[in-house]
UniProtKB/TrEMBL annotation:
Catalysed reactions, semicolon-separated: L-histidinol phosphate + H2O = L-histidinol + phosphate
Record's keyword annotation contains Nuclease: no
Top EC class, one word: hydrolase
Pathway in which the depicted protein is active: Amino-acid biosynthesis; L-histidine biosynthesis; L-histidine from 5-phospho-alpha-D-ribose 1-diphosphate: step 8/9
Example GO molecular function: metal ion binding
Keywords of this entry: Amino-acid biosynthesis, Histidine biosynthesis, Hydrolase, Magnesium, Metal-binding
Organism: Aliidongia dinghuensis
Reported cofactor(s): Mg(2+)
Listed name of the protein: Histidinol-phosphatase
GO biological process, one term: L-histidine biosynthetic process
Organism ancestry: Bacteria, Pseudomonadati, Pseudomonadota, Alphaproteobacteria, Rhodospirillales
Family: Belongs to the inositol monophosphatase superfamily.
Known EC number: 3.1.3.15
Amino acid sequence: MTETSSAVIDAAALLAAELADAAGEVVRRYFRQSVEIIDKDDASPVTIADREAEAAMRRLIAARFPDHGVFGEEHGVERPDAPWVWVLDPIDGTKSFISGVPLFGTLIALLHEGRPVLGVLDQPISRERWLGGAGRPTTFNGQAVRTRACSELARATIFSTTPAMFDAVDRPRFDAVADAAKLVRYGADCYAYGLVASGFVDAVIEGSLKPYDYCAHVPIIEGAGGIVTDWQGRAPGLASDGRIIAAGDRALHARLIERLNH
């Protein structure tokens, strides 16, 4: 990484904290309130909170880095071919949000030439924040965190948002992993990735994800000592097929790759 790129990431990390603060103010105002639920074309729900939070973040990016691209869940794509592209998910886990469950989060990523180099996972209700950047240790509320060692699937705790996210081909593959794991849990949305970075969970395995669902997790987990790839072991970016493995231990990651592709 060049000195110039590193300087951009440093400046972007400061902005990312402002973006998370701005989104959090919006989200807290609407959480557990009566808000209109709108079904998008893919049948997933969206609320005014999602849209206002993303709009607030976009305004800050435009003011600070007007030449950067933006890929947002709610308001689309601007300058996708720019060298630096922000990827935003104002509320990852909208179903949890509208159900009053505080396990959703705001996801903020910055990509350089297609590679995630900065990530923020912010839980605005509990005010917990993970920050990861290329070449930097991941922090949780300002303190460095590390993944835990767990090389054996039989000792591993595995998370996924829901088994319903796997299609007819991938569901048996995930079930083969789940059957061999020590513990499998569902329903934490993006929060589970933060738990991997902090060493409480060993892996997250998911499918049917979009770039704004996973890009932020890459630098967060890598900076804590883990690894994030697709199910083939490839580094994920905007062109990924949306099947993601995030593991705290590289030996465990290799075993997961092998079992999922057996």
